[in-house]
Amino acid sequence: MLASYAPSVRFETLDDALAALRERGLRISTPRRLVLEALFEAEGPVSAEHLARRLELDVASVYRNLETLERSGLAAHLHLGHGPSLHVLVGRGEREYLYCEGCGAVETLVPDALDRVRAEVRRGFGYEARFTHFPIVGLCPKCAASPPGRR
Amino acid sequence: MLASYAPSVRFETLDDALAALRERGLRISTPRRLVLEALFEAEGPVSAEHLARRLELDVASVYRNLETLERSGLAAHLHLGHGPSLHVLVGRGEREYLYCEGCGAVETLVPDALDRVRAEVRRGFGYEARFTHFPIVGLCPKCAASPPGRR
Q: Between β-strands A136-139 and A96-100, what pairing exists: parallel, antiparallel or unpaired?
């Protein structure tokens, strides 16, 4: 699925999110509610496999529900390096990310934190860069400082 | 495989590349030679599936040879959006890329073209960004200018 460039739904609480789903005519099945709750409780982006294990649900059912949440504008997915795609709620606005290829660290950033980087890309190439779906990949300060042999 | 941050082997011609493989004690089998030739002829990064079809080789054999070329420092792979990983020779130095999520356009850049972007990332977050393996993703000037409904 191509990640949407459309503004997503704003919500703060689980009840808001459930109301947004109902407004779109979507049924709140138990797995759907569980997936939504687990995304609220997660501290950052999580994989479908992680959710399936935690919730003791079939991974295909978790995927289907994540897709519905994404199509409804409540969730988004992103790709960190070679790992599985990760899922996150977007009720407070989409986030952008930095990912360290050395140690796997992820830095979650507020929407405007990368604006100067984005402006440099625009200035040089006219591209409108977006690091929500495919974050900036590189080495974190710690990994960048350590000699290559130790990475 | 974690893309290497080590400097890669320099080579200009197919003969140089074959010599570099022999120096590493690697046998030049027919599939290996064919894959190397096809990478030389390709105009940009290509997928293993594309090479397998073109060379009428087993895709597993193409993958194995691409992996050997990458481990030997002659080739690299990169990820453009949701597509398969793509492979490219690095004899003239690694390239960095911009990828348009709208139309699939790929812009290949010389190593220092993104230095100002990299400097902004370093200044803000201390990360050493690298767009060889996971390029900058966004919308190209044309897609960024067209109304969302037409993308």
A: parallel
Give pLDDT tens digits for A35-93.
Answer: 999 999 998 899 999 999 999 999 999 999 999 999 999 999 999 888 789 999 998 88
Whether B58 contacts B102, CB under 8 Å: no
Q: Contact, B133 vs A101, CB < 8 A? A: yes
Say if residues A144 and B126 touch (Cβ distance below 8 Å).
Answer: yes
Task: Say whether residue A147 is in contact with chain B using an 8 A CB cutoff.
Answer: no
What is the pTM (predicted TM-score) of this model?
0.82
In angstroms, the separation between the Cα of residue B107 and the nearest Cα of chain A is: 9
Using CA atoms, how far apart are residues A132 and A135, in angstroms rounded to an integer? 6
pLDDT in tens, B79-96: 988 878 999 999 888 899
Rounded to 5 degrees, what angle do the CA atoms B109, A139, A93 make?
85
Distances in Å between the Cα of B41 and the Cα atoms of A100, B54, B103 are: 33, 12, 24
Name the CATH architecture for the domain at A1-151.
Orthogonal Bundle (1.10)
Asked if B151 and A5 come within 8 Å (Cβ–Cβ), the reply is yes
Contact check, Cβ <8 Å, B101/A151: no
* Closest CA relative to residue A87, chosen from A69, A103, A101: A69
Report ipTM for this prediction.
Answer: 0.81
CB contact under 8 A, B127 and A140: yes
- Residues of chain A contacting B2 with CB distance shorter than 8 Å: 82, 101
Dihedral (Cα; B106, B110, B115, B118), 10-degree rounding: 40
Instruction: Name A128's Cβ contacts closer than 8 Å, sequence gap at least 6.
Output: A118, A121, A122, B138, B139, B144
Is there a contact between B127 and A98 if contact means CB atoms under 8 Å apart? yes
Instruction: Count the Cβ atoms, other than its own, within 10 Å of residue B142.
Output: 12
* pLDDT tens sequence across B111-124: 799 999 999 999 99
